[in-house]
User: Which sequence fits this backbone?
């Protein structure tokens, strides 16, 4: 069933007992009594499949510490199984912690896939990979494309299936930081954005609900066809130039979560990816220019 | 008393049982195996028994991921052993590779899917100085700079302070004995060196003979206070023993005899009791004279509880307490009280001072 079929109080009680959630190839088992976590899921994961499953890839629990800390400056701990990989965060960052924690579970364990630190979207059967240099505006661009009819495959982690080199979607919410939250709101006033977490280590963070079409098609892999290195620069005209494949290879490998762990297979998958993709730089300052450029790529 | 991780044990003992597990069984088992450091081992035995294709996809993907780390590490360890061999070949001494690296180098069943944190070698005590100098020339540097730590290692321990390669970052423990100089049991490293087998393609690197590898594994398990990996180490031992017993009729008596020669009957005895309890290992009654003590039942129960402590869904009652008791025991076995108490006081005060300086 879809998560939206539960009312918020129903979701809260299911989540307290443990809820199975499907995102792309992964089944998470989530347990939490945090109201903000239930609220965040209710807002952003409405179209996702939930259920009671026999097997889960990752068991996640978000819970306050025991003892006095529960009342005094409340905090939140993230657990995967018995293991808590992060320092506790202020309790009002609990939903953001869930998102980061889910990323951590995947990036640290899902080694069936070559995992690139990049956003990826699809249109006309062609996946476009956007490697993320911090500050390049990757997430903003991802959000705008997702709100303009592109299928969102993933915002943070691009999964490449080791069996066929195809991109496997996750379709999870897009993480927006600071000014990009307002940029996205201004671009699409109807966009659903979750409650912002203030003063995190990344500044203000809020998540954009993925388009329903991206979520319902999350089982559909996509063929990687383009790697675009975007750069937003104030006042610049849209400009695109070829990006050397050797450099793109090094960039992909050094920004992958598990390139060296996969050894020879990591090399082979990256090489296959680069063979399949056209690599370009793209500099812009105006959003319509960006949309036009990306449309032209997959036309 | 047996830990409540029956499926995990069953999978290690009889890998084919994995083909019959339901998704709900896997849902408990995978987190247990991950916490115990045994995900890679399960992956390796699934491959060996041709089970991978028949497992549910997400389950196989978890095992495959667990296997990726040790597979990468095995490549790195073989490379590193080549470098070590080149660095030490000129000394004209036998160099013994121990534990995880020895399992990898000899293709032992205990190497399958096993992770390690460092490489351990053993050299004759008289050659410690020149070994250290040769390693420093080849890029390994001593990691403990504190004068107290240096003296602690050099005067009392069975190894010099850990060395780390300045470029590759690999950590190397250089031993001259299996147990501290101050330990209650004293073994005979010269006899272990005398029986060592040369590693193919290496100039000076050797591996302990199979019985000695087993006895060292048991000794390490029973003397170190590392219970987070207790079940993994016990499963190494199980794999070594099962392979040995399957190959050689004379295996058990000769193992007992060797334990006597090395004065390691006690750790072998303690380990066999745990293997019987946890893995149901069916070892014949061995002549381990003098290995048993009055009141051993308490030690056996502590060990079993501590071995169960790796995951909350199979932990026996009082496992953390048993863990602590065994930690204290490991120190007790390591040093006599007149050395141990000043050492622990010094360490406690140093930590206090460090905390104050940092805060």
Assistant:
């Amino acid at each position: 069933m879809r998560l939206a079929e539960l009312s918020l109080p129903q979701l809260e009680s299911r989540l307290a007992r443990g809820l199975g959630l499907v995102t792309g190839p992964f089944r998470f088992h989530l347990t939490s009594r945090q109201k903000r976590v239930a609220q965040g899921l209710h807002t952003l994961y409405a179209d996702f499949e939930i259920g009671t499953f026999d097997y889960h890839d990752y068991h996640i629990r978000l819970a306050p510490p025991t003892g006095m800390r529960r009342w005094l400056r409340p905090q939140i701990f993230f657990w995967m199984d018995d293991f808590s990989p992060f320092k506790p965060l202020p309790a009002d960052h609990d939903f953001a912690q869930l998102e980061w924690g889910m990323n951590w579970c995947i990036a640290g364990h899902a080694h069936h896939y070559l995992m690139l630190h990049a956003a990826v979207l699809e249109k006309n059967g062609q996946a476009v990979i956007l490697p993320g240099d911090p500050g390049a505006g990757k997430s903003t661009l991802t959000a705008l494309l997702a709100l303009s009819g592109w299928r969102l495959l993933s915002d943070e982690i691009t999964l490449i299936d080791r069996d066929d080199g195809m991109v496997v979607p996750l379709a999870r919410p897009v993480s927006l930081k600071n000014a990009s939250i307002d940029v996205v709101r201004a671009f699409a006033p109807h966009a659903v954005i979750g409650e912002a977490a203030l003063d995190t280590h990344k500044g203000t963070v809020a998540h954009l609900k993925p388009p329903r079409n991206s979520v319902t098609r999350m089982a559909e892999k996509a063929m990687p066809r383009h790697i675009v290195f975007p750069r937003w620069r104030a006042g610049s005209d849209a400009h695109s130039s070829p990006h050397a494949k050797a450099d793109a290879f090094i960039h992909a490998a050094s920004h992958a979560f598990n390139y060296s762990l996969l050894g020879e297979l990591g090399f082979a998958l990256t090489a296959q990816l680069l063979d399949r993709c056209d690599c370009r730089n793209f500099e812009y300052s105006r959003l319509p220019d960006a949309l036009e450029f990306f449309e032209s790529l997959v036309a | 008393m047996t830990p409540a991780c029956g499926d995990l044990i069953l999978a290690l003992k009889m890998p084919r049982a994995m083909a019959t597990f339901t998704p709900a069984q896997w849902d408990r088992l995978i987190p247990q195996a991950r916490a115990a450091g045994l995900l890679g081992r399960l992956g390796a035995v699934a491959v060996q028994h041709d089970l991978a294709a028949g497992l549910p996809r997400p389950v196989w993907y978890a095992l495959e991921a667990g296997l990726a780390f040790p597979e990468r590490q095995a490549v790195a360890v073989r490379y590193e052993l080549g470098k070590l061999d080149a660095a030490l070949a000129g000394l004209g001494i036998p160099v013994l590779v121990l534990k995880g690296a020895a399992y990898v180098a000899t293709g032992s069943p205990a190497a399958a899917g096993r992770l390690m944190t460092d490489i351990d070698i053993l050299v004759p005590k008289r050659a410690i100085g020149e070994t250290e100098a040769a390693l420093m020339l080849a890029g390994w540097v001593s990691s403990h700079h504190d004068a107290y730590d240096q003296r602690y290692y050099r005067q009392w321990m069975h190894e010099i302070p850990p060395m780390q390669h300045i470029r590759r970052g690999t950590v190397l423990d250089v031993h001259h004995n299996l147990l501290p100089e101050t330990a209650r049991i004293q073994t005979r490293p010269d006899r272990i060196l005398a029986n060592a087998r040369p590693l193919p393609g290496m100039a000076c690197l050797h591996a302990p003979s199979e019985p000695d590898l087993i006895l060292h594994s048991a000794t390490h398990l029973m003397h170190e206070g590392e219970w987070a990996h207790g079940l993994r180490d016990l499963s190494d031992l199980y794999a070594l023993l099962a392979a040995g017993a399957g190959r050689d009729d004379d295996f058990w008596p000769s193992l007992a005899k060797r334990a006597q020669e090395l004065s390691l009957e006690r750790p072998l005895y303690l380990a066999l009791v745990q293997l019987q309890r946890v893995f149901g290992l069916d070892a014949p009654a061995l002549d381990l004279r003098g290995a048993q003590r009055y009141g051993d039942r308490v030690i056996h129960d502590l060990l079993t509880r501590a071995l169960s402590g790796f995951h909350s869904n199979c932990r026996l009652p009082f496992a953390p307490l048993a863990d602590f008791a065994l930690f204290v025991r490991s120190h007790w076995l390591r040093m006599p009280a007149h050395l141990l108490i000043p050492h622990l006081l010094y360490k406690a005060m140093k930590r206090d001072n460090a905390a104050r300086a940092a805060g």
Remarks:
- Chain A touches chain B through 21 residues (CB under 8 Å).
- The first helix of chain A runs from residue 8 to 17.
- Residues 3-109 of chain A form one domain.
